[in-house]
What we know:
With about 130 residues, the protein is α+β, with helices and mostly antiparallel strands. The protein has six helices and four strands. It has a four-stranded antiparallel sheet.
Amino acid sequence: xxxxxxxETATSLWDGGWRVEDKNEMKKEYTFTDEELxxxxxxxxxxxxxxxxxxxEEIGDHDTIGRLKDGRFFWTWNTGEFMEPExxxxxxxxxxxxxxxxxxxxxxxxxxxxxxxxxxAEFVKENF
Length: 128
């Protein structure tokens, strides 16, 4: 298969409930070569890291909390010049003025925010 066709297939597989963790089963069921499977999994990782905008909330002028399509949670903050949440997630948590963090679970983000930002922890409890 062509690379673009494989990327489209990855999107369809994702929509059907397949995930990167299922790569051995996908290889058997769809008879992907190792190279094809690598392309499919690469695209699935991209999809999983996309923001699920239906499960994302902006809080005030500076914070955004939500879910990624793979089920993880994120928090971004922006106290300088406006930046999109995707850009802030790429910056990471090294810049105190602007940045973002990804958490494996609701419990993990709540635990972190409880210590760092109690107001946001309460918002998450009420909205997620």
